[in-house]
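Risk register update: the risk of archive-format incompatibility is retired. Evidence:
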Amino acid sequence: MAKMKTMDGNTAAAWVAYAMSETAAIYPITPSSTMGEIADEWASQGRKNIFGQTLEVRQLQSEAGAAGAVHGALAGGALTTTFTASQGLLLMIPNMYKIAGELLPCVFHVSARAIAAHALSIFGDHQDVMACRQTGFAMLSAASVQEVMDLSLVAHLATVEASVPFVSFFDGFRTSHEIQKIEVIDYASMKPLLNMDKVAAFRARAMNPEHPDVRGTAQNPDIYFQGREASNACYDAIPAIVEDSMAKVTALTGRAYAPFDYVGAPDAERVAIAMGSSCETLEEVVNHLVAKGEKVGLIKIRLFRPFSAGHFLAALPKTARIAAVLDRTKEPGALGDPLYQDVCTALLEQGGGPAVIAGRYGLGSKEFTPAMAKAVFDNMAAASPKAHFTVGITDDVTETSLVTAETLDTTPHGTVQCKFWGLGSDGTVGANKQAIKIIGDNTDMYAQGYFAYDSKKSGGITISHLRFGKKPIQSTYLVTSADYVACHNPSYVHLYDVLEGIKDGGTFVLNSPWSAADMDAQLPAAMRRTIARKHLRFYTVDAVKIAGEAGLGGRINMVMQTAFFKLADVIPFDEAVRLLKNGIEAAYGKKGPKIVEMNCAAVDRAADALVAIAVPAAWADLADAPAATDDAPDYVR
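Archived output:
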């Protein structure tokens, strides 16, 4: 029976990397750091990989050092991995050329992140992996947490088979930090899939004083060119090897993968081509539009390098009239971004095909929503489509952007959607992660959690986006239509529109010291009007007071988590309290019984402290107070 477990993308990658590796050389960089941390923690606990060994984990002094250590370990015959992103990956490029040039099998797990250009960004896009596509590493892309688990295994199987190194990448934050309920692959099932004859051949090539050989030579014009071309056969074989490795994982899990996967109408006329987490959103929208009779489809790219034109053309419907290639990177000065150029080349060399247009989206984790995905398909349907466009921003400088409708709800019917507004370090994010795991690991429901952080992290704003439902959740975008909203910091009611998008009849919980009588004076008119007009169930709780009396200081997480389970009605409340207390014991038991007792006391007091606010009918007709910017110029407002 399949074992379901709730985890994020980084944990899924580390799960496989730990199993399939003997050594890991690491250096932390956001958002990849937790992959190395988890692997190191498991090693300290004595976890065994598929070889019956504890993974040897070493932290170096930089990413360049980590890549050098990987190269050295591979030369010594150890199956080795590393985890990185962004500038860290760029520091590894010189060693990547050597590792690939020497045909050494390994996997770099990359939580793809923006590169510091006009400004630094810790958030996700494909600029880093695109900057190393020329190194000779094969490249596999995963679109979801489940795919990270499955395709990381494909990468480890294929690298040994092909004797070519792999980058296995997924979107930073959007996938690396998104929590999903997934099916895990146990180590006993992984082991038979690995070709141990190829592993033995790799080890036989290792540096060894018993059979010395010459490496790292310098070559002159008479021979260097020939040496570079000599590896062609290895790269020509990779698509078939990856396909075979995917077939092994499919036979094990029942989840089908191909180097290029197509979803949508079999006779599609408009086709989007993309990779990474956007594929999940695009697939939701394609299913929505196909159900309405539209002839649209999506090609999801798994194997990006080497780019197999044959597999791509086989996936492209013969009826396609126009294709939009979506790149999550920017190459200033190029005629087109990398994925677009690959698709154009593949079509040109086979003598034609649909018209091709190029889109750019999602830089620095900019949202890519169903409405934006629909705008891409609408642009393809236009009489004169924009040939080079952006989506998700308003480009009023070079006029590249597509017009996007405000919302399009394609989330599966019956999915409960929640938003939690917290302050970095107040425990909100940790509490929501625990809530997801409680629901995901103890019910038959699917669960998803994504956490939008301010770059300041501790002390900055955090917004947690949670979804629960009976159907798998592909919604790789923020919650825009919430059933439940909790505001954990009362000052936010004056700073943010915390109720934006809340559903009619939804639930709003406010952590505040204010009584029902205080609400008229404390809440902005616009918020009170929304509460009344949308018929919200409105509750307040003084979580700071409860946490303080329990000895928890400003850590209000247990109070607000209890309030959520009491009001959201996702699972029976008594069961939720039992599971909460079990979680407290597991999380804080090592810190002593007093810490456990304080957190349990906060849980016990929270439910009784919730106050339901009777909403005055007059709130529905309130007018906004004059804004300070009413007389300001347009750009200020």
